[in-house]
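Reopening this one. Same input as before:
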Amino acid sequence: MEARRLRKDPDTRRAEIVRHARDVFAQGGYAETGLAEVADAADVSKGLVYHYFPEGRPELFAAVCEDLIAELSARLRSAAAVPFSPARRMEQVLAALFGFFDENPEAFRILFRDSLGSRERHVEAAAAAAWACAAGVLGEVLSAASSGEGEMRDSSELLAASHGILGFAVAAIDLALEGHVDAETAWRVSCEYATVGLK
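Same output, byte for byte:
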């Protein structure tokens, strides 16, 4: 007699598909991964994957990114909340950023490598959301540091500075993950760059 498949709560089933998709995208990359591989890994039909993600692979990839962004955001916000000087808070936020991707190199691939140049709406939006999340926390640290001191009062200056710091840090993380520099050096140099003018 054939075993009956257990019906799962829709939210539980969707979360399982996303979890398996994260592993599959991490191994094969977005461009080389299809829904069939995700369905196999999740032990569900391809039709069920489409049931939860009607727009297919880009929508599923975006859901994976959303989960990663939530994890990254929680880590960065916790680091930004430490009651230290602005320079020390910036170092803590960068340590959280570097630590997250050191522990989850597949997350870096998904958020900052695979999503670049995809030309797919969901994927580009996910990449922009990841960038905005990290830059936003960096901007909050800079804003708190400059309030009352008259430095970088203009929101456009804060925006440019936070995105510049993030760009520097992302490039340094990429170098570390590729083995070109050690992670400690990459983090230290990023901190030196990011804390110029902070006390």
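So the earlier flakiness isn't reproducible anymore. For the record, The chain has a mean pLDDT of 90.
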